[in-house]
Design a protein that fits this description.
heterodimer; A: alpha/beta; Rossmann fold; 3-stranded antiparallel β-sheet; 11 helices; 12 strands; B: alpha/beta; 7-stranded mixed β-sheet; 6-stranded mixed β-sheet; 25 strands; about 35% helix; oxidoreductase activity, acting on the aldehyde or oxo group of donors (chain B); magnesium ion binding (chain B); 2-oxoacid/accept_OxRdtase_asu (chain B); 2-oxoacid:acceptor oxidoreductase subunit alpha (chain B)
């Protein structure tokens, strides 16, 4: 059985009374704006965490700065609300030194992709055993409405009255480019899908990035409305299922992704597929190119937006490797260093005695 | 063979100087080891350019290593060399001004070509034009003799043979000062163990150098410097960075907690990362971060998890880490920040020393953000300073800045290795149970309920059942740690954090005033210890009464500092900055201390400081 992300984290005994959402709800008053998508994500996480069966004290949420980063205060686990963009670095230090913890990072599009972009890509590259939840609302909320690195070009905001000229990041493409071993996307409004993705992310050993589309009702209301609108949803959302063809559209108007030479693929009506090569999603493919191609189906117009797990592959994690080197050195030397061992270290190889 | 005389000297200062690629640092290191093994007291000063290979033969490319050894207590690497080994014209030109007339020059004539002379602006060769007549010059064809000595090594190219000329120079100097070469032979055997021919060639060059001294008539006598009287014990030679790394590892061992270093390579701090990365057997984890900010973030994350979190850097790195240090002030978690100061501002002088980060580490953060600061004073003292930094960080749950500098980092001296059980007990207690009861009488955990004596909050690490809590950089309510924007609470918390740092136990400042009637106090901090002590020694030997004291703790200051400052008519504060400690002392104690400053990237010389103190002594006589 493969080692999971939670392998070394103490679980509750089988006969322990079950945990509930209440056990994970802190006594702090939640202070997001009314209607904020963060409430929905918080409720989903609070009700999902008990399903993992972990000891509550072994779960840690680390966040940066921004609306999303208030998240840890509302969970009755260990938590740290740190500084802007740095949560992945702090979480790396914690996860590397403490294999018995399930370490989560909560961040937003500004926190993770702008000020903290460097730490995010390196946490993914190293494959530190972290579950990173990136709430993407395509706007700076806490600073009251400036464009973010995921805002569409042309966004009219407080700091871009004539429209932003910045080209946005696609967080999934970025993560795949950074050698991430687990990359997924979910919608705040689709709780079933969100919980499914969260479970897979938590159990993944290594860095798992989950981009969560989240509505900011104050500064960027309706950014994902076309994906929530029942009349448009089916035609736009591409539900990724590993081992199945990539399709979009309602049952009576199903379109299938077929391979196109030199391109990312093309959706064609099911009836017109013919001899063309159908793209079958394989999240476990060692080569990330196919997952990357899927991520490029997305566009600011949200014509086709893949949801679900893009990539889920196994690669040694940084923290496991670091600990293995230390533990290996300790074991090879016959156990933890004694006073005598330290004395030997202090003396070094070249000493002389006086008197 | 001529019979040679042997003269006894009490002290010698040698400077090896050559091109960056000539292996002068290695030569100096080896000579130092040989000297330490003989029981001389010693002090070293490596001085090298920031470029790995500056253009060959040019002044900016000169790298040097100075060693002062004696039959008595050595306090500094020496003001002026008695012997200069100059591997090329640039090395001669760059160092001649430091060389007193009558000193010895060993010059490699092979490099004194028209081209090389022209590169540094010599129109004629100083070895031949009489301009060095006031010095005692040994012109030796170091390169060609080395190549000739290695003629039997047919498998080696001429270039490879030339490269061994530093070993020839080392052999020659080892003969001159009767140093044993067995340590170097062992060292070479380890270094070139896998390449027997290179090993044999280096050994042959070393022996050829020794034999050259013994055989040729150019060198009429060799010299002996007797061992210095040193306290009984076991000694090793350490650089400041090595001692600092050992101190951190020892502190973690004595605290019973794992050490986690998060660091990004930066000169002159990288050797701390290198040394600790080799201590895995001692439970030390090192993480080479993606940047300076991540380095300190990793350390803080590890501290949050119950480790001794450390980050090591130099001035520019401190600038980048400032926000995270501020977070640690707010979180009240242990964190050790090591700043090996170098010349600034900005990139400044990466390989040169300076003490100009004091105000940065004291005040370079947003808001009222008090951080304890302490400074090491000699290379070996970096060990004790590291233990003290960990003690403060863990006892008071606070980030601590430990200041060293480029001079201490790379300089070395003999160190009496302590016994492990003599080291301070740094055992820490993690919170394990609720520490209060709520209104309903139920036990609860209050993350910001303080120890009444230290004002430290509990160190409650994740994984401890029943103590789940949230912390963050937003202002927290006293005791509960909940978010609070309450005006009075903020005022309380700011003052509590300050009171905690102000209340840190630091020993009183000891004043060295043997006659008891000095009117002038020289007050130093950090690496000025050696030059200050040497200068006061010179003055006392000349019959003057001078008091001397050295600050280990810059924040908080020792409780008796106010009293000490007022006890003297004049207080001189020498610093390698433009008066940062002087500013703090004046502002804190309203005492008009006299500031003497230099920012040349080099430590003070004994003569320079003795002159400054003499002037002040005249004022008060």
């Amino acid at each position: 059985m493969p080692v999971t992300g939670l392998q070394h984290v103490p679980h509750l005994p089988d006969d322990a009374p079950g945990q509930s959402k209440r056990d994970f709800t802190s006594d702090q008053e939640v202070r997001w704006c009314p209607g904020c998508g963060d409430y929905v994500i918080l409720a989903a996480v609070q009700s999902f965490l008990p399903e993992l069966g972990l000891r509550r004290e072994n779960i840690v949420f680390v966040s940066g700065i921004g609306c999303s980063s208030r998240f840890p205060y509302y969970l009755d686990t260990y938590g740290m609300h740190s500084i802007h963009g740095r949560a992945p670095a702090i979480a790396t230090g914690l996860a590397t030194s403490r294999p018995d913890l399930s370490v989560w990072v909560v961040t937003g599009d500004g926190d993770a992709l702008s000020i903290g972009g460097n730490h995010l890509i390196h946490a993914l590259r190293r494959n530190v055993n972290l579950t990173i939840l990136l709430f993407n609302n395509q706007i700076y909320g806490l600073t009251k409405g400036q464009y973010s690195p995921t805002s569409r070009t042309g966004s009219v905001t407080k700091s871009s009255p004539l429209g932003s000229v910045d080209a946005p990041f696609n967080p999934v493409s970025l993560a795949l480019g950074a050698e991430a071993t687990f990359v997924a996307r979910a919608m705040e409004s689709d709780r079933a899908e969100l919980k499914e993705v969260l479970r897979a992310a938590a159990e993944h050993r290594g860095a798992a990035l989950v981009e969560i589309y989240q509505n900011c009702p104050i500064f960027n209301d309706g950014a994902f409305e076309v994906l929530k609108d029942r009349t448009q949803q089916a035609a736009r959302i591409v539900r990724l299922r590993s081992g199945e063809p990539v399709t979009v559209g309602p049952e009576d108007d199903r379109r299938v992704l077929v391979r196109v030479a030199g391109g990312h693929g093309e959706f064609v009506p099911e009836a017109e597929v013919g001899a063309r090569e159908v793209v079958v999603h394989d999240a476990a493919a060692p080569d990330p190119s196919a997952a990357f191609a899927l991520s490029r189906l997305d566009s600011p117009e949200m014509t086709h937006v893949p949801m679900g797990v893009f990539r889920q592959v196994s690669r040694p994690t940084y923290d496991d490797l670091v600990r293995a080197q230390v533990e290996g050195a300790v074991d090879a030397a016959g156990g933890p260093a004694t006073d005598a061992d330290l004395g030997e270290l202090l003396r070094g190889r070249d000493t002389w005695t006086v008197g | 063979m001529t019979s040679k005389t042997v003269q006894t000297l009490d002290r010698v200062v040698i400077r090896f100087a050559g091109d960056s690629g000539d292996g002068m640092q290695l030569t100096g290191d080896r000579f130092t080891s040989e000297t330490a093994a003989l029981g001389n007291d010693l002090s070293t000063l490596p001085n090298f350019p920031a470029e790995i290979r500056a253009p060959q033969g040019t002044l900016p490319g000169v790298s040097s290593f100075q060693l002062h050894f004696a039959d008595h207590d050595v306090l500094t690497p020496g003001d002026a060399p008695d012997v200069l080994v100059a591997m090329n014209p640039a090395a001669l030109k760059a160092n001649l001004a430091d060389l007193p007339r009558g000193a010895t020059i060993v010059a490699n004539t092979d490099e004194f070509t028209t081209r090389n002379l022209a590169k540094v602006g010599y129109e004629t060769s100083p070895l031949e034009d009489g301009s060095l007549e006031s010095w005692h010059v040994h012109a030796v064809a170091l390169t060609s003799i080395t190549v000739e000595a290695l003629a039997p090594f047919e498998g080696l190219t001429r270039k490879e043979k030339e490269r061994a000329k530093n070993m020839f120079a080392l052999g020659l100097l080892s003969w001159m000062y009767t140093r044993p070469t067995t340590g170097t032979e062992d060292f070479l055997a380890k270094k070139f163990g896998g390449r027997p021919e290179i090993l044999e060639a280096n050994l042959a060059a070393l022996r050829a150098g020794w034999n050259y001294g013994e055989t040729t008539e150019d060198f009429a006598s060799s010299f002996v410097v007797q061992a210095a009287p040193m306290a009984p014990g076991r000694y090793r030679n350490v650089t400041g960075n090595t001692a600092l790394a050992l101190g951190l590892a020892a502190a973690a061992h004595r605290a019973g907690r794992p050490l986690v270093l998060g660091s990004y390579p930066i000169t002159p701090a990288s050797d701390v990362l290198h040394a600790l990365s080799g201590m895995k057997r001692h439970g030390v984890t090192t993480i080479q971060a993606e940047d300076e900010i991540a380095g300190v973030g990793i350390a803080l994350g590890a501290s949050y998890g119950g480790a001794i979190g450390v980050t090591s850097t130099s001035g520019p790195g401190i600038a980048l880490k400032s926000e995270t240090i501020g977070l640690a002030v707010s979180l009240e978690l242990p964190l050790v920040v090591v700043d090996i100061q170098r010349g600034g501002p900005s990139t400044g002088l990466p390989t040169k020393t300076e003490q100009a980060d004091l105000l940065q580490v004291m005040y370079g953060r947003n808001g009222e953000s008090p951080v304890p600061v302490l400074a090491a004073q000699t290379p070996a003292d970096c060990f004790d300073a590291a233990l003290d930094a960990v003690r403060i960080a863990t006892t008071y749950r606070t980030p601590v800045v430990l200041l060293s500098d480029g001079y201490l980092a790379n300089g070395s001296e003999p160190w009496a290795v302590p016994e492990v059980d003599e080291l301070p007990d740094l055992a820490v207690e993690l919170a394990s149970a609720p520490n209060a009861v709520d209104d309903a009488g139920e036990p609860v955990f209050r993350p910001y309920l303080r120890d009444p004596e230290t004002l430290a909050r509990p160190w409650a690490v994740p994984g401890t059942p029943g103590l789940e809590h949230r912390i963050g950089g937003i202002e927290k309510a006293d005791v509960t740690g909940d978010i609070s924007y309450d005006p009075d609470n903020h005022d309380t918390m700011v003052r509590l954090r300050q009171a905690k740092v102000d209340g840190i136990a630091v020993p009183d400042l000891e004043v060295d005033d043997p006659s008891g009637d000095a009117k002038v106090l020289v007050l130093g901090w950090g690496s000025t210890y050696g030059p200050v002590a040497a200068a006061t020694r010179v003055l006392r030997n000349a019959g003057h009464a001078v008091a001397r004291a050295h600050l280990r703790h810059l924040n908080p200051f020792p409780a008796n500092l106010d009293d000490v400052l007022r006890r003297y008519e004049r207080v001189l504060v020498p610093e390698m900055n433009t008066g940062q400690l002087a500013l703090l002392l004046r502002g804190t104690y309203l005492v008009d201390v006299r500031s003497h400053t230099a920012v040349r990237g080099l430590p003070f010389t004994t003569v320079e400081l003795a002159d400054v103190v003499s002037t002040i002594l005249e004022e008060v006589s």
